[in-house]
């Protein structure tokens, strides 16, 4: 008889699967329709796999596959698959993953991890009513921006400030508010593209402002800006090339020089810092990254930066500068469309408060702590993870500790290679690609880096207890075979 027909005949009826105790148990906490859907899909998937086996010319290989499929028609195996499918259907799509890549601000993994007080603040306003737009002193209507304005001003030295949805929104708002139908002068070397679809020239078009490019890719001088000023100029713009560097024969006009030119010509000067920071990275042995305070001090009128890059807070765009400009932005109808919600405000306020004590900020804001982590600390964590692998994975893998580099990510500090120690794992019975995939598909998923036939785990981006979870996943993978 045709082996395929034989296998198909062995497949249990859906009703039989639904009668199994483990499947019935699922019914107590998830809808019946989901369970029968999962059972039908599982059986259908196996049926298709059986039918897909080619017969002519590939007999040896086929026999192999058929044996595997033979196992898969066992009722117990099918029940396993159905249970797994039900969990997939009922579990959250957006969920925690473990980042063992060593890329601190990993755009695909949600950029900045929030500090504990920020998480607590979100919980508090989520589960309760809050004074989001109420002035408790007067009992009158207040504004949501009031909760962070004073804090951000004290930390940056600016006159006024607010936050919006993200920095892309902040750039759009500033340009639209100050330069709609007017000219904005910017250096050719600063027409950046930030991952995805954010390009300065395109945002400029959307804002209604007219781009006037000056200088060349590698060099722009103060006179280039000066010569381009017309009666239709609204703004001088400086964009921090946060995600790339122009090196070699280069010249850029400093924030201070541009601010002075703005004052002389009666023009507002705007600086988009991208990943603006509030602490001096150079003091921690990392390349200097311009701080928001420096720009304000240099006389820049309006500064924008991201909330979830090097600042280490929630997704947001921070806008600080002259009060008359911030007032105008608050009046812009677009601001309502780009406003932040109460969770963002709660997390932003809590993160800002940490910055009042720099020691606390550096220790308590995960982004800063990870970037500034000392190699000795990383090495001891790597040694611990290696020990756990040896205990849990038996002889299934070869492990060693190697020196390497982590990255800041998120388009910030592109040249900075942070020295680290990696746990390098070479699986013996499976390919490195299979090992990587299994780690990615287990709960919680673990993301690590493949290098040749090794899987690399960088302790820099691991959070508390992650080591234990990774080791437990390793054990499960080794048991799967
Ligand atoms: C990242 C970045 C942006 C966009 O910020 P988001 O918070 O991602 O919207 C804008 N400008 C510069 C220079 C950047 O580096």
Characteristic key phrases:
481 residues; alpha/beta; Aspartate Aminotransferase, domain 1; Aspartate Aminotransferase, domain 2; 3 domains; seven-stranded mixed beta sheet; five-stranded mixed beta sheet; 16 strands; elongated; binds pyridoxal-5'-phosphate
How confident overall, as mean pLDDT? 92
How many DSSP-defined strands?
Answer: 16
Tell me the major beta sheet.
7 strands, mixed
Number of domain units? 3
Question: Which regions have little confidence, pLDDT < 50, spanning 5+ residues?
Answer: none
Give the strand line-up of the largest sheet: 3-11-10-9-8-4-7
What amount of the residues lies in strands? 15-25%
Q: Any guess at the CATH architecture of the largest domain?
A: 3-Layer(aba) Sandwich
- The assigned structural class equals alpha/beta
- The helix content is 40-55%
Give me the number of helical elements.
21
Assigned CATH superfamily of the largest domain: Type I PLP-dependent aspartate aminotransferase-like (Major domain)
Shape: elongated
Terminal Cα separation, in Å? 32 Å
Give the CATH level 1 class of the largest domain.
Answer: Alpha Beta
Please tell me how large the radius of gyration is.
28 Å
Name the bound molecules.
pyridoxal-5'-phosphate
CATH topology of the largest domain: Aspartate Aminotransferase, domain 2
């Amino acid at each position: 008889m045709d082996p395929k027909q034989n296998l198909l005949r062995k497949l249990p009826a859906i009703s039989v699967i639904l009668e199994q105790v483990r499947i019935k148990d699922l019914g107590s906490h998830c809808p019946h329709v989901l369970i029968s859907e999962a059972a039908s899909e599982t059986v259908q998937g196996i049926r298709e796999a059986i039918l897909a086996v080619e017969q002519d010319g590939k007999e040896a290989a086929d026999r192999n596959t058929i044996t595997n499929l033979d196992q898969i028609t066992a009722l117990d195996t099918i029940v396993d698959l159905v249970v797994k499918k039900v969990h997939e259907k009922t579990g959250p799509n957006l969920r925690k993953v473990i980042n063992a890549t060593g890329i601190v601000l990993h755009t695909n993994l949600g950029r900045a991890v929030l500090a504990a007080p920020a998480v607590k603040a979100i919980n508090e306003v989520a589960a309760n009513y809050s004074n989001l737009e109420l002035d408790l002193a007067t009992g009158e209507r207040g504004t949501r921006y009031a909760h962070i304005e004073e804090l951000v001003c004290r930390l940056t030295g600016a006159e006024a400030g607010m936050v919006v949805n993200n920095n892309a929104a902040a750039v759009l708002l500033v340009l639209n508010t100050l330069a709609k139908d007017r000219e904005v002068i910017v250096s050719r070397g600063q027409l950046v593209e930030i991952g995805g679809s954010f390009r300065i020239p395109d945002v400029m078009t959307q804002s209604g402002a007219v781009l006037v490019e000056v200088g060349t890719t590698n060099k722009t001088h103060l006179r280039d800006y000066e010569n381009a000023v017309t009666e239709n100029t609204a703004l001088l713009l400086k964009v921090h090339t946060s995600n790339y560097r122009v090196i070699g024969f280069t010249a850029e006009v400093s924030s201070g020089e541009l601010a002075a030119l703005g004052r002389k010509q009666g023009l507002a000067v705007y600086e988009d810092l991208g990943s603006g920071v509030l602490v001096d990275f150079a003091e921690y042995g990392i390349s200097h990254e311009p701080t928001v305070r420096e720009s304000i001090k240099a006389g820049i009128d309006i500064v924008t930066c991201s909330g979830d890059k090097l600042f280490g807070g929630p997704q947001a765009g921070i806008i600080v500068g002259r009060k008359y400009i911030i007032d105008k932005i608050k009046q812009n109808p677009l601001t309502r469309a780009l406003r932040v919600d109460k969770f963002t405000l709660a997390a932003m306020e809590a993160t800002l408060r940490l910055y009042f004590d720099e020691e606390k900020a550096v220790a308590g804001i995960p982004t800063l702590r990870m970037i500034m982590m000392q190699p000795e600390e990383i090495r001891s964590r790597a040694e611990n993870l290696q020990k756990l692998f040896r205990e849990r994975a038996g002889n299934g893998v070869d492990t060693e500790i190697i020196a390497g580099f982590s990255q800041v990510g998120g388009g910030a500090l592109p040249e900075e290679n942070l020295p680290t120690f990696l746990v390098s794992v070479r699986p013996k019975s499976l390919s490195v690609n299979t090992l990587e995939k299994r780690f990615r598909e287990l709960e919680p998923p673990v993301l690590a880096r493949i290098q040749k036939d090794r899987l690399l785990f960088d302790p820099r981006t691991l959070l508390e207890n992650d080591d234990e979870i990774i080791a437990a996943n390793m054990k499960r993978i080794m048991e799967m075979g």
